[in-house]
C-alpha cells in the first residue's frame, strides 16, 4: 500500500458552493458520501440532489430500475456542446436502443483485437520521441491527449493525419471548458444560451469541431476501408429491424466516439503515469512484467492478455482518480429509494469519485494498491462498488476498447522510459467531462 498526501487533492465541502460547481464540482460531494451510502441536499426551490455511494442502491438505479431512472435533465444540457444529442450517449428510448444494438459489434472484443497494432504504434512513436529527447520535463497530461487522439482517429476513421491535431485538441479544450458553466446553468434551471465566461470561445470551438467531423465523413465518402470503426458503423444494421444509420446519425456518433473516446482514456493514462512516478516500486514491477511478457518486441493481442499487473495498476489508478467523477439519473416519478422518499425531478448522482473512496467499501481508501484488483479481492467486493465505466444498460460501450488501448500504451511507455515526479508540484483537479488535471501533470521522463 503506497501513500502520498497528494492522493487527496481537495477536501469535500460540508456545504455545497456555487463557485465549486464551476471550479471543481467534486468538492460539492458531501463528506457523508465518503462514509455512508446516501447523502442529499436541497437548495432553494430546486428539486433535491441525492448522492449515492451505496452499491445496492446504485445497482437499483442503474440496472434493476434503469427504465424508471433515465438520464437526468442536467447532463444533456451540460454536454450538448461537445456530445451530439442525436448520438448514442444522449439518445433516449427506442432511438438509443437501436443505435446501441447497431454499434455494439464494432466494440466487440474480437473486432477490437484487430486494432491493437494501432494502439502499439501510437504509443511506440511517443516512447521513441521521449527516448530521443534524453531526460526532459514533460506534461504527460498533454502528451497522453495527443497519443489517445491519434489512437482514436486511426481506430475510428483509419487516418491520424486527416485533421490538424493541435488545432482540434485546442478547440476541444475550449469546447469542454464551458461544461462546468453549462452544468451550473442547467442546475439552476437556466437555458444554455445565457452568456458566461468563455461562452463565445466555447461556441466557436464547437462549431469548428462539428465542421471538421463532418468533413472527415465526407472525405471518406462512405467507403468501407476495412476494420476501422466508421466502416463497421456504415455496415451496421439493427439486428431487429435491419435499419442502417443515416448520415446525421453517423456524424453524431463519430463526433461522440472521437471526443468520448480519447479524453477519458488520456486522463486515465496521465494520472496512472503520475501515480507510478510517485510509487517507484510499482513502476519497477510494471517494467519487469512487461519485459517478461513482451521482451523488446511489439505488444499485441497475445502480450496484452499476459499483462495482468499492468491491468491492475490501471484499475487502481481509475479507482483513486476516476476519469469520470459522476453520472446522473432522474426518477420518472416520486418514488422510494433505500427506504427514503425521492421526489419527481430529483437529481440522483452516482458519485463515482466518492464511491471509489468510500471507507465502508475500500479499506485504507486513500492508499494506492493495485492488488485490490487481484481476482480474489475483486470477487469479494460488490460489483457496483467500482464503476469507472458506469453500469447497467448504458455502461460505456468503449470499455474494452479503452482497457486494451490503455494497457498497450502504459506497457509501451513504461518499458521505454522512467517516470519521476517534479519537486514541489501539487496537482489540482479541473473536472469538466473527465477529471483533467488543471495545470497539466509534469513529470521528469528519461530513457529506461
Ligand atoms: C477510460 C476511458 C473511458 C471511461 C472512464 C469512460 C466512462 C464512461 C462512463 C462512466 C459512461 C456511462 C455514462 C452514464 O451512464 O451516464 C460512458 C458511456 C459511454 N462511453 Fe465511455 N468511457 C471511456 C472510454 C470510451 C471510449 C474509448 C469510447 C468510444 C470509442 C466511449 C464511448 C462511450 C459512449 C458512446 C457512451 C454512452 C453509452 C450509452 O449511453 O449507451 N467511451 N463512458
List the helices and strands and how they pair.
Blueprint: H1 18-23, E1 38-41, E2 49-52, H2 55-64, H3 74-79, H4 93-103, H5 109-113, H6 116-132, E3 136-139, H7 140-157, H8 165-177, H9 179-187, H10 199-220, H11 229-235, H12 247-278, H13 280-294, H14 301-306, H15 308-320, E4 327-329, E5 335-337, E6 340-342, E7 347-350, H16 352-355, H17 375-379, H18 399-416, E8 417-421, E9 429-431, E10 435-437, E11 442-447
Parallel strand pairs: 2-7
Antiparallel strand pairs: 1-2, 3-11, 4-7, 5-6, 8-11, 9-10
Helix pairs in contact: 6-7, 6-18, 7-12, 8-10, 10-12, 12-15, 12-18, 13-15, 13-18
Bound molecules: protoporphyrin IX containing FE.
GO molecular function, one term: oxidoreductase activity, acting on paired donors, with incorporation or reduction of molecular oxygen
Cofactor: heme
Keywords: Heme, Iron, Metal-binding, Monooxygenase, Oxidoreductase
Total helical segments: 18
Helix residue percentage: 40-55%
Instruction: Give the overall shape.
Output: globular
Topology order in helix (H) and strand (E) letters: HEEHHHHHEHHHHHHHHHEEEEHHHEEEE
Give the percentage of residues in beta strands.
5-15%
- Strand segment count: 11
CATH architectural label: Orthogonal Bundle
Mean of all residue-level pLDDT scores: 91
Domain tally: 1
Using the coordinates above, name the CATH class.
Mainly Alpha
Poorly predicted runs of 5 or more residues? none
CATH superfamily membership: Cytochrome P450
How are the strands of the biggest sheet laid out side by side? 1-2-7-4
In the CATH hierarchy, the third-tier topology is known as Cytochrome p450
Which sheet architecture does the biggest sheet show? 4 strands, mixed
User: Structural class per helix/strand content?
Assistant: alpha+beta
What small molecules accompany the polymer chains?
protoporphyrin IX containing FE
Distance between the termini: 24 Å
The radius of gyration computed from the alpha-carbon positions, rounded to a whole number of angstroms, is: 21 Å
Pfam families: p450
Organism: Methylocystis parvus
GO molecular function: heme binding; iron ion binding; monooxygenase activity; oxidoreductase activity, acting on paired donors, with incorporation or reduction of molecular oxygen
Keywords: Heme, Iron, Metal-binding, Monooxygenase, Oxidoreductase
